[in-house]
Amino acid sequence: MSAVTTAFAKAAAEDRAALVGYLPAGFPSVGGAVEAARAMAAAGADVIEVGLPYSDPLMDGPVIAEAVHRALASGTKPADVLRTVEAVTAAGVPALVMTYWNPVEAYGVAAFARDLAAAGGSGLITPDLPPEEAAEWLAVAEACDLDRVFLVAPSSTDQRIAAVAGACRGFVYAASLMGITGTRDAVSDDAAALVARVRRHTQLPVAVGIGVSSGAQAAQVAAFADGVIVGSAFVRRLLGAPDSAAAARAAAELASELAAGVRRKAEP
Fold this sequence. Notes:
There is one protein chain. The chain has a nine-stranded parallel sheet with strand order 5-4-3-2-1-9-8-7-6. The chain has a single domain, classed as Aldolase class I (TIM Barrel). Helix content is 50%, strand content 13%. It is of the alpha/beta class.
């Protein structure tokens, strides 16, 4: 099993959902992102998504887009992303890279997979790459023993869900609502139904993302999903921090709240 699969299995054995936290590499700095990611893991995050900053982040809401812009403006490169992955995994936490496909193609698919594996990374989450166009990535990922995580949405047909789930390894990413990333006041009513639909087509864990920002919401999602993915809420905390040390403390505080939430598992 991959490190990500092991993390989900450990959470399931503890009768809870896994907590997956996201931060873009290079924000507030390369070192600051590593410090924050380690703090998240120490406070209860089971898996860390390391975002690869990209200039045209179509799915990202204003909070993540601002952090990505700052990371790019400071000169963050794919090599910095890989260094971040290496530092996070060295701390004993599985790391996946969340990336749009263009930067991977520009780097070279085989080269990126090779370097990601060498850094200890577990695989990629590719929000804009459909499985039908992923033949090269699927072959390279298999050769490098890397997870490949694709997304489904409430609008996905059962046929589409089956195809996406069949191409995944690690877990299936269930986007709880249509639209860009960002925190929400309430979890989408479509999320539980989407998870149930995905489970009809796969035995992989199903993790829900987009919108979770509090321990109460994490508990709500943990009642019906195998994993709870949180991104914008972490990034918002970092945006409001005056320095890297404060950013790490803020990330740890939120991770602790969310980790308590996934263990609480509110009634769905």
